[in-house]
Specification:
Length: 159
């Protein structure tokens, strides 16, 4: 699904683009996709010179769920002394938090196609659990204990 955009980025950015075909939910629940992306990135970083790539110029990128995966891979690799440092992470409308689906951006964009607020909750649950029976709980915010909501209020808040 992303072949054309990967080719465009490679051509216009004079870059090498490696696109990871990770396992998808609901057949493959978390952490399958994350492990696929992490393993592919580590393999590429360890063998970059074999592919004619400068290891100091490797970045990760993803959109939507792929943005989530790119962020998770970046965080995992940040402190790895056995690998070169990533040059950058590029996150395109990433799914980064499911603590509160009632924040202003979710409200303002709740009916914007393609990824409606309800669909975001549905897909997140499929990714994590393989089914979405608790979608309404997630949309109401009742999936998060009050003490966790308080703990992360500083970072996940309309303020």
């Amino acid at each position: 699904s992303h072949d054309n955009i990967c080719r465009y980025i490679a051509r216009e950015g004079s870059s090498v683009v490696v696109s990871v075909g990770y396992r998808l939910a609901p057949e493959h629940k978390y952490p399958a996709a994350y492990e696929d992306c992490l393993n592919a990135t580590v393999h590429f970083m360890r063998n970059a010179e074999h592919y004619g790539v400068d290891p100091a110029r490797i970045s990760v990128c993803g959109d939507s769920a792929g943005g989530n995966l790119a962020a998770a891979v970046s965080q995992t690799l940040a402190g790895r002394p056995d690998l070169p440092r990533l040059r950058a992470q590029v996150l395109i409308y990433p799914g980064l938090q499911a603590l509160d689906l009632d924040l202003p951006s979710y409200q303002q964009n709740r009916g914007v196609p393609l990824l409606l607020r309800e669909r975001a909750a549905f897909f997140a649950l499929h990714y994590l659990r393989g089914e979405a029976s608790h979608k309404q709980d997630v949309l109401k915010g009742s999936h998060v204990p009050p003490e966790m909501r308080q703990k992360y209020k500083k970072w996940v808040s309309p303020d």
